[in-house]
Amino acid sequence: MSARQRDFTLYTYFRSSAAFRVRIALNLKGVKPRQEFVHLLRHEQASANYRALNPQQAVPTLVHDGRALGQSLAIIEYLDEIAPQPPLLPADPFGRARVRQMALAIACEIHPLCNLRVREYLRDALKLSEAEQGEWQKHWIGLGLQAVEEMAGAGRFCFGDKPTLADVCLIPQLFNARRAELELSAYPRLLRIEQAAYELAAFRDAVPKNQPDATPHP
Amino acid sequence: MSARQRDFTLYTYFRSSAAFRVRIALNLKGVKPRQEFVHLLRHEQASANYRALNPQQAVPTLVHDGRALGQSLAIIEYLDEIAPQPPLLPADPFGRARVRQMALAIACEIHPLCNLRVREYLRDALKLSEAEQGEWQKHWIGLGLQAVEEMAGAGRFCFGDKPTLADVCLIPQLFNARRAELELSAYPRLLRIEQAAYELAAFRDAVPKNQPDATPHP
């Protein structure tokens, strides 16, 4: 039995950037998990049941053969190891490292500063104004994307002509950048990559509005 | 010629938590790079020369055979691929994913919220008081360590009885938690792991105060 036919369940929320990454990776691999929806704004991630699956109380969680995994990049590397085709990392160690560098530049340096729990802290504990919250997001997203723009190669995607872990992280981040109303014209390579990505159903089908739990309004 | 004998240069700063991780990994692998020091408080990371090596303007950067790599986790995975002994990830995919999950729980959810550039933004752009800055750090470090405490196994280290990528991230984070004056008694497993780690020279030799660029005062 191949990995694709085994029992996968994805705990997800349509608007989560980390869940968006994992949805793209699952689509690229042709893995169709069952889905369970965890409504972040209703704080369903803090329930005792969910916390038993994911002590970080974050989405996504992938359950495979009864074992739960959190952290989107760990999940995607796992998928790439158990279902190697198509590969989401190059074959040579330096190429793999370059792709991981770009993925981590997004996953470590941009996204954690702008996710829901941080935005709630800025609003509720620090009492920042809407404008200050917006500036915060634009500052970190802009700084991070600038670095990725410089690191991206000249190919169709971030590294070469096929999507990798780097693109799987980039596309949800660009989606969030638009929600934060960041002007994106300073990142022409990234916009070109985004266009190439959305030519693929794997990326289009993973977009928040195309999820079963999507709601029209926040 | 083995990977260990080739040309490695590490761009580092003694107090950087990400550089601390890479120093531990290099020590565990027995790789002794040349070192170049990048003084973060003097903003040497923003120089044109350094930026050409690392568009994120962050430490560490590892240059291997003339090619520069940033992002500590990408560097460590690279080292683990080119110098596989001793391994920093388990052999089976699920174990590897669990170790990466713990490493990313630290590298994505704790450290990016508390590093120098964020602390500078809190102080300079948001004009937070010292007390508010301290609360910010304690909040995110505490939340993150609680999740790692729940994820860590019952062995000597985070996963089993040998150090992995998870411990390489945990030990510098505990070091930072102490600098932020977080009370650590709520994390008995992590404290036990820390004790086991510091029995190894690879961890002790990587501590900030033992670096050539260490200064006694900030």
Can you characterise this structure?
Chain A is of the alpha+beta class. In chain A, 50% of the residues lie in helices and 8% in strands. Chain A has helices spanning 17-29, 48-53, 72-82, 93-107, 111-114, 116-124, 130-151, 165-179, 188-198, 201-204; strands at residues 8-12, 34-37, 61-64, 67-70. Chain A has a four-stranded mixed sheet with strand order 2-1-3-4, with helices on one face. In chain A, helix 8 crosses helix 9. The A-B interface holds A 55-58, 64, 67, 69-71, 73-75, 77-78, 81-82, 93-94, 96-98, 100-101, 104-105, 107-109, 111-113, 118, 121, 125-126, 128, 132, 135-136, 139, 146-147, 150-151 and B 55-58, 64, 67, 69-71, 73-75, 77-78, 81-82, 93-94, 96-98, 100-101, 104-105, 107-109, 111-113, 118, 121, 125-126, 128, 132, 135-136, 139, 146-147, 150-151.
List keywords for this structure.
homodimer; 218 residues; Glutathione S-transferase Yfyf (Class Pi), Chain A, domain 2; four-stranded mixed β-sheet; 50% helix
Q: Which chains make the largest contact?
A: A-B, 44 and 44 residues
CATH classification, class level of the largest domain in chain A? Mainly Alpha
Q: Name the overall outline of chain A.
A: globular
Give the end-to-end Cα distance of chain A, rounded to a whole number of Å: 41 Å
Largest sheet of chain A: 4 strands, mixed
Helix count, DSSP H or I runs of 4 or more residues of chain A: 10
Oligomer state equals: homodimer
The percent of residues in helical segments of chain A reads 40-55%
Q: Strand content of the residues of chain A, in percent?
A: 5-15%
Strand element count of chain A: 4
The radius of gyration of chain A is: 17 Å
| Mean pLDDT level of chain A | 95
